[in-house]
Amino acid sequence: MPQEVEKYRKPTRILHWVHMVSFCLLFLTGLVLFIPGLGIIAQDSWTRVIHRIAAAIFIIAPLIYIPLNLKATAKGIKEAFSWGIEDIGWLKAAPRYYFLGDESDMPPQGAMNTGQKLWWLIVLVSSVVFTITGLIMWFAKTTASPAVLQWMVFLHDIAFIGASSMLLLHIYLGVIHPTMTEAWKAIYKGTVSVGYAKKHHAKWYEEVTRRKEVKS
Questions:
Q1: Which of 9, 51, 88, 188 could join 29 via S-S bond, C-beta 3.0 to 4.6 A?
Q2: 180, 173 contact by CB (below 8 A)
Q3: Domain range spanning residue 184?
Q4: Is the pTM of this model over 0.70?
Q5: Which CATH number goes with the domain that contains 198?
Q6: Which of 194, 174, 173, 195 minimizes the C-alpha distance to 183?
Q7: How far apart are CA 134 and CA 94, in angstroms?
Q8: 70-97 pLDDT per residue, tens
Q9: What is the total count of domains within the chain?
């Protein structure tokens, strides 16, 4: 059995699954509201109830995770907003890598590759937009002006389109694409093989190895 290296800690994996399930429920129930032709499904407002329950979980889960994992949270946020020359190289090499399997020009990556960083950045930004606009539409729908509510709906829809599109791509690359064979295992078990780590996250693997050598 190949040697394994920890990629994601258990609290991070739990948050990922809770957030993913709640967002999928938000996506499906939001789609009913977003597409007029599906309005019949929303009869008796049961989809709105599910949407609001999922929204509460979507908001509360990170609020529980963050104070218990401040260091990991700060590191993750910093990584999402830290972009350099290697990320530009990744973007240039990504089409040949994902469509043709040619990784000769792919620069070594950290714990998150550039695509994952982009997804994580969209998650952070869209989550803030979803939360602010959603709470205003939920609790201020009778007190806010029509103009404010229209802007909240517009921004909510823009975040919905962007985040949902990236979610589908994220699921495809993480579960189906043949080059990302252990991405699913990483978020399920928390580990990847050493070979996979070296190939897909070489910079991160070197850092992990150095930390182990220092501790020993």
A1: 51
A2: yes
A3: 4-74+90-215
A4: yes
A5: 1.20.950.20
A6: 174
A7: 35
A8: 999 999 999 999 998 989 999 999 888 8
A9: 1
